[in-house]
Design brief:
Layout (H helix, E strand, L loop, with lengths): L2 H18 L4 H8 L3 H8 L7 H10 L4 H6 L9 E2 L2 E4 L3 H13 L6 E4 L2 H8 L3 H7 L6 E5 L7 H10 L8 E5 L6 H8 L3 E4 L4 H15 L2 E2 L11 E3 L2 E4 L2
Parallel strand pairs: 2-3, 2-4, 4-5, 5-6
Antiparallel strand pairs: 1-7, 3-9, 8-9
Helix pairs in contact: 2-3, 2-4, 6-11, 7-9, 9-10
């Protein structure tokens, strides 16, 4: 999506949400700690909004970032939040990632699997199995590389080799930016990587890229992120 279109969609979402809340530009500016002229320019799609200020505007509207972007549609249309798949075997790293997602106010449904075999089973269900489960393919995948049963690199290869999954953005979780596997991941088409342990500060930028550039929402559908966490077969479903 072109930058001008992205700015316009974001500005429309801010303006529509503010009006729904019966909030003036002055009120929003005060709550977000920004100048009213800045808010006005954002709403008109005339500003390149920084990561920090996107966060401030979302907090000023009392919204999560993902729900703010979910409102970026035509007219009063709302977007459906896509589901996220976290593939992580280490329970400590898994807990830290979930905490960082909560702090970043990501409210998308999150599925968690513990190894590469479970990940492949989750991703490559038959159409019948997927309809029966009631869950679509994830919109974003967070992938640890050092997985038991099937290594993360092989999982990534399978994802990028299959027409059903090759366009799903994949974010690799790694213990070092010097990990030689990162070069292989880039060749295979990974979108980005995060250094573990995942914390709010190193997650924030990639979270906003997920929302703004990769689409943590599907426009033109009704949003519903109210389902409580529950156990689903061999994997867990969380609301961060």
């Amino acid at each position: 999506m072109k930058s001008a279109k992205m700015k316009s969609l974001f500005g429309d979402a801010i303006k529509r949400t503010r009006k729904d809340l019966r909030m003036s530009q002055e009120d929003l500016a005060d709550r977000a700690g920004l100048h009213r002229t800045y808010v006005s320019e954002v709403e008109r799609g005339k500003r390149n909004v920084s990561i920090e200020n996107i966060q401030k505007l979302a907090e000023g509207l009392d919204l999560s970032i993902s729900n703010l972007f979910a409102s970026a549609g035509n007219g009063s249309a709302r977007g459906k939040l896509v589901e996220i798949l976290l593939i992580e075997d280490n329970p400590d790293d898994r807990a830290l990632t979930l905490r960082a997602l909560r702090k970043a106010k990501v409210t998308n449904v999150l599925h968690v699997v513990n190894d590469g075999g479970e990940a492949l089973s989750f991703l490559f269900k038959t159409d019948t199995e997927r309809r029966a489960s009631g869950h679509p393919l994830p919109g974003v995948i967070l992938l640890d590389l050092n997985l038991p049963k099937v290594h993360g690199i092989e999982v990534l290869r399978r994802i990028k080799a299959d027409t059903r999954t090759k366009n799903i953005p994949v974010i690799v979780l790694t213990s070092s930016s010097l990990d030689r596997d990162i070069a292989t991941c880039r060749q295979l088409g990974v979108e980005s990587y995060l250094i573990k342990p995942v914390e709010f500060e190193n997650l924030r930028e990639v979270t906003l890229r997920m929302a703004f550039g990769w689409g943590l929402t599907q426009l033109g559908q009704s949003a519903d992120s109210s389902s409580p966490p529950q156990e689903l077969g061999g994997h867990r479903k969380h609301q961060p």
